[in-house]
Backbone:
């Protein structure tokens, strides 16, 4: 029994982004299931071409902001413009922050027709893009 408890403690330590849940108790055997207690963050940063009109940047912002209403796999969304005083932005001015509940949801989003259509709106004005995805506790 001590080795079982130690194994469970090590499991909790080694897999901090998961929660264990006792699902059944049969003949003194406990069956556990692992449930993910984190979310997938999708961070997208844009650097617009020099001379891009504010009206065109606004059009891109509005088009990106419309995606959560068109793609239900987006669990949450926010965006903003850089205001860091550090000067390390490398010309990236806009950050869009999406949350997915699973990699499967992200896999639906990436090739989604509305996401692809957004790329067509963004394309003429985009100088560079940076995308980072990571798992985070909610």
Residues:
């Amino acid at each position: 029994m001590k080795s079982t408890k130690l194994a469970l403690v090590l499991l909790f330590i080694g897999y901090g982004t998961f929660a264990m849940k006792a699902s059944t108790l049969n003949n003194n055997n406990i069956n556990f299931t692992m449930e993910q207690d984190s979310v997938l963050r999708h961070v997208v940063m844009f650097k617009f071409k020099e001379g891009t009109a504010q009206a065109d940047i606004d059009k891109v912002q509005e088009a990106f902001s419309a995606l959560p209403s068109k793609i239900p796999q987006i669990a949450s969304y926010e965006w903003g413009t850089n205001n860091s005083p550090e000067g390390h932005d490398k010309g990236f001015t806009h950050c869009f922050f999406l949350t997915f509940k699973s990699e499967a949801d992200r896999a639906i989003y990436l090739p989604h027709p509305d996401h692809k259509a957004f790329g067509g709106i963004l394309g003429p004005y985009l100088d560079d893009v940076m995308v980072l995805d990571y798992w985070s506790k909610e």
Q: What stands out?
A: The domain at 38-137 is CATH 3.30.70.100 (Alpha-Beta Plaits). The chain is about 35% helix and 40% strand. The beta strands are 18-26, 29-36, 38-48, 76-81, 94-100, 126-137. Residues 54-70 form the longest helix (17 residues).
